[in-house]
Amino acid sequence: xxxxxxxxxxxxxxxxxxxxxxSHFAGPDRxxxxxxxTCVHCGLCLNHCPTYRxxxxxxDSPRGRxxxxxxxxxxxxxxxxxxxxxxxRCLDCRACETACPSGVQYGHIVERARAQIEQHYKxxxxxxxxxxxxxxxxxxxxxxxxxxxxLLRLYQRSGAQxxxxxxxxxxxxxxxxxxxxxxxIDDHFFxxxxxxxxxxxxxxxxxxALHAGCIASVAFSALNHATIRVLTKNGVEVWVPPGQNCCGxxxxxxxxxxxxxxxxxxxxxxxxxxxxxxxxxxxxxxxSTLKDYGDLLHEDARHERAEAFAGKVxxxxxFLQHLGLRQPTRTLNLKAAYQDPCHLAHGQRVRSExxxxxxxxxxxxxxxxxxxxxxGSAGSYNVTQNELSMKILDAKMKDIATTSAELIVTANVGxxxxxxxxxxxxxxxxxxxxxxxxxxxxx
Amino acid sequence: xxxxxxxxxxxxxxxxxAVLDRPADLMLYEYDGSLARGAPxxxxxxxxxxxxxxxxxxxxxxxxxxVPRGAGTGLSGGSIARNGGIVLAFARMNRILEIDVPNxxxxxxxxxxxxxxxxxxxxxxFYFAPDPSSQKACTIGGNVAExxxxxxxxxxxxxxxxxxGLEVVLPDGRIAQLGGNAGSAAGYDLTGFxxxxxxxxxxxxxITVKITxxxxxxxxxxxxxxxxxxxxxxVVALTSAGITPAAIEMLDGWTLRAVEASVHAxxxxxxxxVLLIEVEGLREMVEEHAEAIQALCRKSGAxxxxxxxxxxxxxxxxxxxxxxxxxxGRISHSYYVQDGVIPRTRIPETLAKIxxxxxxxxLTIGNIFHAGDGNLHPLILFDSRDADQTQRTLDAGREIxxxxxxxxxxxxxxxxxxxxxxDLMCSLFTDSEREIMLRLRQCFNPNSLxxxxxxxxxxxxxxxxxxxxxxxxx
Lengths: 443, 474
Fold this sequence. Notes:
Structural class of chain A: alpha/beta
Number of strands of chain B: 19
Shape of chain B: globular
CATH topology of the largest domain in chain A: Rossmann fold
Oligomer: heterodimer
């Protein structure tokens, strides 16, 4: 189906009663009336939505997207190009959830809408192919993630990248901005560390399972090692349980909820264990999905295990702040600004903990305007919606430029990459670091 | 067909990416914060006053009506294109043009979000006083159209008290300056006349407002009651004692429980009503008034009076109030909010009447008031898929407003008349009063090109609406 012509009622005037026709939704993961109708279209979300702020159009606002979901369910709007365009454009940053007084679970709505799009909408074949390879066959398979990473590493180290950049080939292909966002692949992948146990230093204060992440394991191994160091130095025994896999966040955000469910079940089997006080992650995007396994698996016979798992997941900043940091061995006397990762601030409501940790090691925190507005990274959004992502990034860099921060700190690798690309765009050298990396410098 | 070229001509005026004409997009402009629906034929995003002027001339030539829209948070259908035509969406005219602190004023484009102006003024120690509960999303253009108020209306007045000048585009495309000169008192107050005209006179393209100094000190109190009667008595006691708080808000027991479930503002779940009272000004005065307020509330039957200890507590108490409408969304998928005004001495009997109306129509009705100025916001819960319940809801809302008129009040305090309360204008005003208003509108908007069929009812509608029961009121 690709026609966008609403089937009825577009010119209906003064209608007060909602006529529910035959739904275009079918199959698993339908957005239900109970889920989306909590929206009373008050509009308080609009100005908190990065795409509405950038484009100024109702279709690209949270209220508008929910209205489109309602219209598809009421049979007035097909799952066609228009619906897909606007649902695709959503960052899934969930800033609207923070703004919403009605407690609308927007993330659940948009992820279900995307699951429906995957089931009922035929994308052009190149997109279908790429999405299928990436979401079904690479992510969620550590061997293939490693192989892909090795190929990318070859491109980065063999001189091919230098050639591609210098020759203007990337610009010719319209890929220079996307290409600039790729992370540098590690020499040693963190996958080797899976199965290991890292003992606590001094008195044992807690025992945790670390969720290592898939892309983090090939591109941010150093961050995982720093996480382990900071935890162990604070008296935490860190296990990296075998059998764990990718969290499924990117798949769930893209509408591949079946793949996400498979991974969720694997992670629950591998990591739900009474010995662990918490399941810790250093990636806000992963944490938000790990904490949402209860919803993802709500139809599973053993969904109470998913709930139990979700209840144990803690972002590393949240975990450390509640545990209480030991006296750091050095402090950092710098002015810093903290950028809230969306999936930490809006997805997990964790805002004060990372800031408190940063103050504890001596940083002078300066609040940038709109610190909890998305930077435009949003998982794979900066690749799939590059133009809009860059527009959102530029607004973020303007806000950062109003501060006198000598260091930008955030708590998610996607945000770090995006903000570093943003610094390059405005020609600034201000370093961008993860909270854990900064803590690691102080122990 | 000729009309095929209309989008092309519109694009020529405002640019290629600033016109919507596909049904799938237009349906996103058929709603606002109210229950009304009506899709436009085109949505256009102007970026300058000149473009607005060109658009208006074009629409006049083509016989298309024009409906201006800010953020679409309105609650009376003011931005709904009930006759199709063009919606002028001001999302891209959202710049603050000037902040002039020494002259205590700022000039903004109509699409500037209310709270963003206050945020921009904060470093200078100022803010924009009108504070509708939707202030984090609603636009100042919309505030001008609806003459919006908010909790702090009690002390500071509504939007009209803060607008000193307007640049407007008239329906023939002329650009006019209303007011704007310092201390202008010569001639008719066209600025005042324009504010609250709901888009039926012209289109504001630049708005000059007064800015207000942030108070040195603020105290926020929560008075808790076991019955609504006592809360209403406190309101009268406070205003009679000559204390003018910046705000007195009331939530009834049902509403405060709904709010508490989502915000955890600390409203006691077993109470029948709470008053949220704020005083601001110089530190000594605030302290003195806060003590006097506590004493007066206790004397009129408050079970307990709490004072917010710090800014966090203060913000939390307000968050409960400001997000109250949305919090109802947790309980009911649809609600209908009314906007009646009554003399504050008539609060107790009005509340009793609302309860009676709820029983009569078998509907749940929660109450939130700007109690200090007698502005009621009854919230009627219903399911928009149920035709019978929807009709009962509309009938109940109507009956509440008729009661407000009968005790000497009005049908809107701040949300406007829009397209949902036009027939009640027949009861509120006499034939000759309405005729004067119609003639004034005709001076500006003779062919009803701008926001047609809004606010003022047609004489025919009034003839049909007037039943013997209403005739005595009008």
